[in-house]
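chain below, 135 aa
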Amino acid sequence: MADARTARGSGQARPLSPHLQIYSPLVNMVMSILHRITGAALYFGSLLLAWWLIAAASGPDYFNYVNGLFGTLLGRIVLFGYTFALMHHMMGGIRHFIWDTGRGYDLKTVDLLSWGSIVASLALTLAIWAVVLLG
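prediction:
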């Protein structure tokens, strides 16, 4: 470590913990961070889903108003992001479930599962939106 601090009272130099500037980002590290971000995004997206369900229960006028908001360009972008967050978090959950069984800890499989989760989440998101827009 290039930088070291002196431990309190001991006079010994201790290395600092490495920071993200030292590590080059690995795919499994990026997927872990993205898994946490999508988990937080799902919280806020679920509030939008609850709002939509409440609007449906409130009557046709309010439901049409909320549907109109979700039908705008910004609304569709938010819904697309929510769909991606849901699919990516699900794929990350499956990846973690595989690891919970004690399998897939070798580096080649970790990379394969990490790349597979991002590819599958993008493919599922695009497939869902293709069905929505074209169906």
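DSSP finds four helices and two strands in the chain. The mean pLDDT is 90.
thats it, cya
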